[in-house]
Specification:
This protein is of the alpha/beta class and 452 residues long. The protein has 14 helices and 21 strands. α8 packs antiparallel against α9 and α10 packs parallel to α11.
């Protein structure tokens, strides 16, 4: 690395912050800009990384020859700092290209998929850390075991979440990879499902050794050079699948894993929900193919606490439970809601959902309505726009009108806490990828007061 300073535009993003932490660990000067403070930016500042929140080119290191600039596609093109570095001789690269350069020359284990990739890659990193020789890991969420989205090791193995947004995962060339799902998403970039699937096939063709594929996904052996294994929650036709699934009173599953090397019995999943059984199977497949001892895989799955905002339990007392989840795609909502219903059978589930992006709301409104109809009561918030401008006629109302839940209300985000003051809550879940997570702490405080 010929640069001594790495400067990040959008440093508070989950993927950007992991790379910032990596270079800080390597001893380089690291600083950056983000639009708003957050828990993540405060954590970076506490670790000695300079962060500012005003769009001010004067804050950028002065020497273009000594400063590499990394940016996220979420940064608007008219940002003054981005224009400045482009016009003044700095090397400016996307986050995905930077991750590709970091992983090149190391043994890369990657997890791709339109859902499931964050938890699965976090679990792979945990298995290698607890049961193997360690790894470096760039994660799309905060590991609850380690309290970070970046694990560092001197072992030349790196675990990466392979993000399909903006075709970012085409920068990776993994030795071993898993693909968890290939649903239609990011249609503002891809246009249609066929182009989403083609992007995943390109990623699959870049895997050099072994591809772990969710059973039934449309990738053919003749399309790639890697060996293919399949996995599934419980389909016996898959190379890796569960049998003898048991659910205990605390919401944890235990299962036996059937795999090409035999059967690994009595794996208790540390993270809640049936969806984490499937994530565990995918992670186990990667790690077993990598060479981790089967008994160490079994033990590490049992000690895995999950990732923040993935079936993340904040309150769990008799008659009062609060869970938060990042689900922002219809398939993710259906998985999260069905998992919660299996964990807490017979209880009333109230869901707070904040749609993420106008384009995603436009493209999947009927599917969102069907998934959310699995709730007993829906509290639907206005759309979180992120990087997008409003689209005429696209509001949360186009989801709300088709939801068939017994009870439903549509409110603005600012009305949420006053609404919850009078809610009769049994099981509550917040859902979404926007800023609904800012309400986790006040909701937790509100419910804990009810417990006395």
């Amino acid at each position: 690395m010929k640069y001594s300073h790495i400067y990040f535009l959008g440093i508070g993003g989950i993927g950007m912050s992991a790379i910032a932490r990596y270079f800080r660990f390597k001893g380089l000067e690291v600083s950056g800009y983000d639009r708003t403070p957050s828990e993540l930016t405060h954590a970076l500042e506490a670790e000695g990384i300079g962060v500012h929140y005003d769009d001010d080119p004067e804050r950028i290191p002065k020497d273009p020859a000594d400063t590499l600039v990394v940016y996220t596609p979420a940064i608007p093109e008219d940002l003054a700092e981005l224009r400045h570095v482009r016009e003044n001789g700095y090397r400016v690269i996307k986050r995905s290209q930077m991750l590709g350069e970091i992983t090149a020359g190391q043994r890369c284990l990657a997890v791709a998929g339109t859902h499931g990739k964050t938890t699965t890659s976090t679990l792979v990193a945990h298995i290698l850390t607890e049961g193997g020789d360690g790894c470096s890991a760039f994660l799309g969420g905060i590991s609850k075991n380690y309290g970070t989205n970046m694990l560092m090791s001197h072992t030349p193995t790196v675990v990466a979440e392979a993000d399909e947004f903006d075709r970012s995962f085409h920068q990776l060339h993994p030795a071993i990879a898993a693909i968890t799902a290939m649903d239609a998403d990011h249609l503002d970039i891809y246009g249609d499902l066929a182009h989403v699937q083609e992007a995943f096939r390109i990623f699959a063709s870049q895997v050099s050794e072994t591809l772990i594929l969710k059973y039934g996904l449309p990738i053919r052996p003749e399309d790639i050079s890697a060996r293919i294994y399949t996995y599934h929650f419980d389909d016996a036709r898959a190379d890796f699948h569960s049998t003898r699934l048991r659910l205990d009173a605390t919401g944890h599953y235990t299962f036996d894993l059937v795999y090409p090397g035999g059967t690994l019995s009595d794996i208790r999943v540390g993270a809640l929900g049936w969806v984490n059984v499937e994530n565990s199977i995918a992670a186990a497949a990667i790690c077993l193919c990598y060479g981790v001892d089967a008994q160490k895989v079994r033990h590490a799955i049992g000690t895995f606490e999950g990732a923040q905002r993935r079936l993340d339990v904040h309150v769990n007392a008799p008659g009062l439970t609060y869970i938060d989840d990042y689900a922002h795609h219809p398939a993710e909502l259906q998985s999260a809601i069905s998992s919660i219903r299996q964990i807490f059978p017979g209880r009333k589930i109230t869901g707070i959902f904040q749609p993420h992006l106008y384009t995603r709301t436009r493209d999947f409104a009927p599917e969102f309505a069907r998934a959310l109809s699995g709730l007993d009561r829906l509290i639907l918030l206005d759309i979180y726009p992120a990087r997008e401008e409003p689209i005429p006629g696209i509001t949360s109302e186009i989801i709300f009108r088709d939801v068939t839940s017994p009870e439903k209300i549509l409110i603005r985000r600012e009305e949420l806490m006053s609404c919850l003051e009078t809610e009769n809550i049994d099981v509550l879940v917040t859902l979404g990828a926007g800023n609904v997570d800012r309400y986790i702490e006040p909701i937790t405080e509100l419910l804990e007061k009810r417990l006395g």
